[in-house]
Write a structure and sequence with these properties.
This protein is an all-alpha fold. It has helices at 15-34, 40-54, 62-72, 75-99, 105-128, 136-149, 151-170, 179-194. Helix content is 74%, strand content 0%.
């Protein structure tokens, strides 16, 4: 069995660089699929499944991503996207109310931020779970348990989101590359939990 640093004949870069390039192509495909917004959970879930398959010797290509997405896209995926959009809109409305100068607004903003961060972690961890390909409620339940049991992994998820947002903020074109590293980070946290 070749080591992680060995190269195939004719290969310019090692396997880690190949995984990096594959992750970027899957990230670009994910960014395109995320454009309708309600498809974000399905897109991230599929990206995580494709990248998880790379660890099992399956190709992590945009073609495999789109093939897997076509096979799995269903009403439940769009419903999960609708719930995510509704939650994001509710969170933004809460922050707007806190900014309007209501009594107790600073405490309300802190509580709303904590609830929003917890919901984000659970939602992203649900996307990384294998159950998300077929059963969103089971994936969310498992992700909620993982978020509580693996606080370090939850912190890593928040750091990955912060890094993706920071990269997109610094250079707007990087926003189209951000889903790939985010999906890779989510997959790594999930695989780390399983080991």
């Amino acid at each position: 069995m070749p080591s992680a640093s060995s190269r195939e004949p004719g290969e310019v870069f090692g396997p880690r660089m190949t995984l990096f390039a594959d992750m970027l192509s899957v990230g670009l495909a994910t960014a395109v699929v995320c454009l309708p917004v309600v498809t974000v959970p399905a897109a991230l879930s599929t990206a995580c499944a494709v990248l998880r398959g790379a660890g099992e010797g399956q190709p992590a290509t945009a073609g495999r991503y789109f093939a897997m997405l076509r096979r799995r896209l269903r009403t439940g995926d769009l419903a999960a996207g609708g719930v995510a959009v509704a939650g994001a809109l509710l969170f933004l409305a809460d922050l707007a109310l806190a900014g309007a100068g209501l009594p107790g607004a600073p405490l309300f903003a802190v509580v709303a931020g904590a609830i929003g961060a917890a919901a984000l972690v659970v939602g992203l961890r649900a996307c990384a779970r294998p159950e998300s390909l077929t059963d969103w409620p089971a994936a969310v339940r498992g992700a909620a348990l993982d978020a509580v049991r693996d606080v370090g992994g939850s912190a890593l998820v928040l750091l990955a989101v912060a890094a993706a947002v920071l990269c997109a903020w610094m250079m707007v074109p990087l926003a189209f590359l951000a889903p790939g590293p985010l999906a890779l980070a989510l997959t790594a946290v999930q695989v780390r939990r399983a080991v």
